[in-house]
Structures are given as C-alpha cells and as structure tokens.
Amino acid sequence: MSTLLQLQVGESLKEIQLDPVSRIDLIKYAGASGDFNPIHTIDEEAKKAGLPGIIAHGMWTMGNLAKLFTPYFEDGFVQDYSIRFKGMVFLNDVITLKATLKEVVDNKLRFQVQAVNQNGNEVLKGEVLFTQF
Amino acid sequence: MFNETVGKRSNKVKNVVERGAVKKFAESIGDLHPIYFDEEAGRNSRYKNNIAPPTFPRTFDYGVIEGLNLPNKGLIHGEQTFHYKRPLVVGEELLCYSEVKKYFEKKGNFGDMGFLVLESFGEDAAGNVIFSSTSTVVISEAVRKVLTK
User: Fold this and answer.
1) Which residues of chain A have pLDDT under 70?
2) CATH no. for residue A59?
3) Do B59 and A49 lie within an 8 Å CB cutoff?
4) At residue B37, what are phi and psi to the nearest 5 degrees?
5) Contacts of B73 in chain A (CB under 8 A)
6) What is the tally of structural domains in chain B?
7) Tell me, what's the ipTM?
8) Tell me: the pLDDT tens digits for B120-149?
9) Among A65, B17, B30, B63, which residue's CB has the most CB atoms within a 10 Å radius?
10) What CATH number does the domain containing B11 carry?
C-alpha cells in the first residue's frame, strides 16, 4: 500500500496494459459518461466524420490512466490531473498506461503520465499531482 | 462568433454523486476498486465513505451557457484538466456550472483551428469549490462555417 511513498524520483509505477479496445468498452463508457457522440460507437458515423473507424473517447483513456493511482487512496489523492490528447485510439489497439515520478515537493508528488499504443505512439500525455495526507 | 461567449457562465445545476453511477463509471474505465463501490471498504477508509474516480465529473450536468451553440459533431477534445480540493464522496450534492474561459484561433493543417476553453466548477452547499476542470475543444474551420450558415 505504501509503495508510492517509497518511490524515488525517476522511478515508475507498475505499468498496466489494457485488453485490446473493444466496441463494448466504448458502448459502456458512452452509457456511463453520457457521451453519446456516435463516432465512438457507430462505424458509419465515424466514416462520415472522415475517420477509418470508430475511435475511443479521449476521456475513456484518461479515465483508465487514472487507475494507476487508485490503489494509493489511503496515502493521498489526485489533486491535479492534466492531459493532452495526442493521438486517436482505435478498435483493437492495445494501450499501456505509465506514470513516472518526476519531482517531490513537501507532500506533493508530481508524475508524468502517458498512454502508449502497440506501436509505441503516445496517444495521451500529461501530469498527475498526487497530494499525500 | 465564439468570442462573444467568453466570460459567459451557465446556471448552476444540482448534481448528486450517485452510488450506482459511480459504480457504473468505475466499471466502464476498468477501475472497479472496492473504494468506489463496496460500502464496507468505504466505511473503513479514511474518507468514511466511498469516493468517485478523478474523471467522474465528466458525467455531471453543468447547465446551459446562453449563446454558446457547440455542434455535437466535428469537435476534437484537445486537452482536459481536473483540480481537486478533495476526492468526491458518494452521496454528496454539488452545484455545477461552466464558463467560457477563452477562445482563440491558430493556423493548423486544416485551416484556422478554433480553440475554445471551458472551465467547469463543482461547489458544495456552503459555496466552496470542491473541484474545477478545464476542457479545450478544437473546432475546425469547416465546422465553424457550417455553424455560421
């Protein structure tokens, strides 16, 4: 539980590799989030929008990425979470979630976070500021 | 056309951090940790309750900003931030609203891209801001042309 506090600057949390993105994942996220933009669930709508196929909600990937920090809820909380969406996530993509500790100032841990696809391309990148109690 | 909306704010809307909604949301992002849905795990935690995942405010209703007509198609989500005073607790009520923070245009690969930054807030009953978030939405020239027609 307290591994986060033992982490040294430059070290990373254990990566998480997601199962290949499936349509049902995105249908579930649409329902749970209320974001029913059809480019995330319906092929014809994605094609009409000029995409090769449906793409994941950026917020689905951002939501997934935050789970790297969930096990540490007794140690502190995510105070700031900022993300830039860099690339699209398509069906069957295999996304890996990463976080590296960059800086510790008092009780604040600054992590660089990213989500990378199976080709090594960054699809999402940003920072988490984790405040310890 | 978006410039005139800068500074405009929506009406406040009451949102409840609903137990079922939190569980469904956590499930949809593959983060079904007991702290989000197991009542005993919540009670025994330092929060004395279940909490919500950091991106859960995506599900809230932030009211309507008068004069802001965003299409539901053709937008690109460029950036997103969340800032928390503390995690959200299951069952609590928040008054949520949004404001157009800024709008600017930049030359891009597909013509002049418009960048609209929306800032959203969630306040407790006493008026304390518990979380805020910003969304940067990218609107292509093609989409803007359709809007002005």
Assistant:
1) 1-2
2) 3.10.129.10
3) no
4) -145, -20
5) 37, 39, 49
6) 1
7) 0.96
8) 999 999 999 999 999 999 987 777 776 664
9) A65
10) 3.10.129.10
